Structures are given as C-alpha cells and as structure tokens.
Amino acid sequence: MAKAAKSSFRCTECGWTTLKWVGRCGDCGAWGTVEEAGAPAPGRALATRVSAPALPIAEIDVEAAQASPTGLDELDRVLGGGIVPGGVLLLAGEPGVGKSTLLLEVAALYADLGPVLYITGEESAGQVRLRAERLGALAPKLYLAAENSIGALVAHVDQIAPRLLIVDSVQTMMAPEASGTPGGTTQVREVAAALIQLAKSRNIATVLVGHVTKDGSIAGPRVLEHLVDVVLQFEGDRHSRLRLLRAVKNRYGPTDEIGCFELTDSGIIGLPDPSGLFLTRRNEPVPGTCVTVTLEGRRPLITEVQALVAPTALPQPRRATSGLDSARVAMVMAVLEKRANLRVGASDVYASTVGGVRLVEPSVDLALALALAGSHTDLALPSGMIAIGEVGLAGDVRVVSGIQRRLHEAQRLGFTRAIVPANTEEPVEGIETVSVEDLGEALRTALPERRR
C-alpha cells in the first residue's frame, strides 16, 4: 500500500519548512509563525455554495412566514397571533403542570389545517392515545409515534410531511453521533440544533417540551433558549385549577402578554375573563379582605387579598402566607406598627390570596395593609371598593404603572370606588377615585370607624 502523504509545516515569515509543528521557526527564530502548508490562513473563510441567492429586503416573500392560529385564543394571545411556519417554540414547566395536555389540545385543533406529528419520548403511544381519547383529541390527521432517536424522528417527518411537529420532550431525545446520555448538555445541544435545522429547512412549525430544574429555570444548556425562536413558561400550582402561560422570549410577538387556562378533568380550557376565579362572592363585606387589581404582563386581573390577625398566647406569634411574598408581608406589618400605630406584631398573622394566584407586584401592598388593618380592628371595607398602590417604609403610598388599565378593569366588573396614590393619571368614568398620600390617610378613608 502506498504511504499517506505527510503534511508539512512552513514559516510564514521566511519560508522555512519542517515535517512537524514547532512553536519557533528554526531559521529566522520567529515565534508563532509556523503553520500547516495548504491550511487556510486564520481569520479567512473559504467560499462555499450558497443555499439561496441574496435578494433586496423588499422582495423577500413573507407569505410563508405568516402566523397560523392554533385554535386556542389564550395561546394565540401569548404568541402574538399563532405559530409561525419554520419557527421553533420551547415550552417549559414543572412536572404535572399540564404541558402535554395543552399540546395535545393544540395538536388536535391544528390538525384541521394539515398533518400534525406528535413524538413522545416519555410515554408510550398507548398512554398518549388514552389521554387524547379522554380529551376528545382523536383528530384524523394527528399522527403519534413513540421515539427517542433523532434519526427515527426525521424518518417520520419524511413520511408524513407535517405542518406541526411536537417533541415531548427534548431531554429524552438522543443524537447517535453525540456523546453522553439523553438529557445531558451535549445531547440536548445536538438534538436541539438538529431539530431547529429540520424546522428551518422544511418550514415546519416545531414545539419542543423542556424540563425545569428545582429553582424553576429551564434544564439543559443556556444555549437552548438562545437557539429557539419562542420560549414559553407554563406555571401553576398543582393543587389549583389555574394555569398561567408566559412568554419569556418571542421573536414574533410581545413578551408581556399572559394566557390564563383552567385545567379540568376533560381537558384544558382558555379563560378570556379569569378575574372571577380570584374573588369570593359574598352578600356582606367581611373584615380582613380587600380587592386589588394586579397586572400580569399587560393583562389586568382583579384579585382579593385576605388577612387574619388573631390573638395568641405563644411567645413567638405565627406567620403564614399563601400566594404572597412573606418578606413583603412582614414589611407591610412593620409599617403598620410604626406609621399607623396598629399593634399587629404580637398576634398571629395569616395572609393569602383567593384562587391560588401568586401576587408579587408591589401594587398589592396597599390592599394587604388595609386587609391587615381591617382584620385587626374587626372592621370591613365598604362594598365595591378596591385599593391600588405601593407602600413605602416611610408610610407613603407610591404610584404604580398602568393605573388607567387597572381602573378600567375594576369599573368593568362593577366596582364603584378606588383608593389610589396621589398624582395619578386622569380618573376613569364610572368609578370614584380617592387619592391618598400616605397609609394613614388610606386607613381613614377605607376604615372611617377605626378607633383612634
């Protein structure tokens, strides 16, 4: 057999050649100038064949890039109109939150427009079929396969030519040419790159399901979130029916929209008006409750804050919160003690929200303070009143964003009076606004019968 030709190395300064690489030229003594003969110079890229000629931007066809509605209005709201052909969407959420149920509903609705391929790597095809039967998602053009190999997935795509591809989940898929086990950093990166290239080259809308870590972040390499076009976060307490869908990243639409869903035994239902889930319907007002309006993205939601201040014989009173930030509750209690002379620190304090919603926005501070004060004094706020505002450590009530949008939502649901920070925008017709500068003024307005 003929011996393979040996490579040679040449000094770019003087032309001296050698059969092996060295750091210093043996002739001129220059460092770092010895390179392999015939190799391209650093910083230079060789021209290759182009996939498509470059065109003026005004002549680019945009018809193929128009979003197609999925059939779920709440999902289309978050996506900015629907799924874009060739776009890659990453849906992440905790186990059991309803990711597979949501995607199975989407697949059945989207199958009316063309073939849909659902690849499951975590369950068998029979298990997914039973869930689809329970949800009423047995669409004729919905194809189902249980695969873990990226090569087998491509073979299914060649056979079916789907308009929508769903992979559940990206951590269970395996690329044979990559090292490591499925779910590892190398495997997830290679699988994601292969699926993205497949989606872009064949103009297939693709949805990837992603796992999350203990702290709620998306599992796998961070590059996964950079490669995809849309990143959605599916949230919700497993003990509650409410599910929230947020857009963390969206190249085709806004990132401040939120979708609300209700998870039931028969499937998942979009909630265009979810405010009723966060209110308690009662005939007479009850001490320790206050209604506020929070903003989830650009969407106003009417929510009720409840507080219970009870005497205790324990040396260390209990503190329990549900749906509220415990540090925020402790801060509001300290402000009530110092600025309003309400001795709530020596009592057991329980604070929660209605419907399992989690409130972390500072605009909830004023409603929480009024609920705590009402429970402590055993006085109820008047019916039809809401409170919006952030409470500072000095006892001042600060302006929050989106006051007009919040007031319009409150007026739409029948509330007639609102306590808002001073120097807010123009009032909304149909609802009386009372501007307050500090917490003491807010307490005098909401609880005029409170003992001095």
From TrEMBL:
SUPFAM superfamilies: P-loop containing nucleoside triphosphate hydrolases (SSF52540), Ribosomal protein S5 domain 2-like (SSF54211). CDD domains: RadA_SMS_N. SMART domains: AAA (SM00382). GO terms for cellular component: cytosol. One of its GO terms (biological process) is recombinational repair. PROSITE patterns: RECA_2. One of its GO terms (molecular function) is damaged DNA binding. InterPro entries: AAA+_ATPase, DNA_repair_RadA, Lon_proteolytic, P-loop_NTPase, RecA_ATP-bd, Ribosomal_Su5_D2-typ_SF, Ribsml_uS5_D2-typ_fold_subgr, Rubredoxin_2. ATP binds at residues 93-100. Keywords: ATP-binding, DNA damage, DNA repair, DNA-binding, Hydrolase, Metal-binding, Nucleotide-binding, Stress response, Zinc, Zinc-finger. Residues 348-452 are annotated as: Lon-protease-like. Pfam families: AAA_25, Lon_C, Zn_ribbon_LapB. A motif (RadA KNRFG motif) lies at residues 249-253. Residues 64-212 form the RecA family profile domain. DNA-dependent ATPase involved in processing of recombination intermediates, plays a role in repairing DNA breaks. Stimulates the branch migration of RecA-mediated strand transfer reactions, allowing the 3' invading strand to extend heteroduplex DNA faster. Binds ssDNA in the presence of ADP but not other nucleotides, has ATPase activity that is stimulated by ssDNA and various branched DNA structures, but inhibited by SSB. Does not have RecA's homology-searching function. Plays a role in repairing double-strand DNA breaks, probably involving stabilizing or processing branched DNA or blocked replication forks. Belongs to the RecA family. RadA subfamily. The middle region has homology to RecA with ATPase motifs including the RadA KNRFG motif, while the C-terminus is homologous to Lon protease. PANTHER family: DNA REPAIR PROTEIN RADA (PTHR32472), DNA REPAIR PROTEIN RADA-LIKE PROTEIN (PTHR32472:SF10). NCBIfam families: sms. This is DNA repair protein RadA. It comes from Actinorugispora endophytica. The lineage of its organism: Bacteria, Bacillati, Actinomycetota, Actinomycetes, Streptosporangiales.
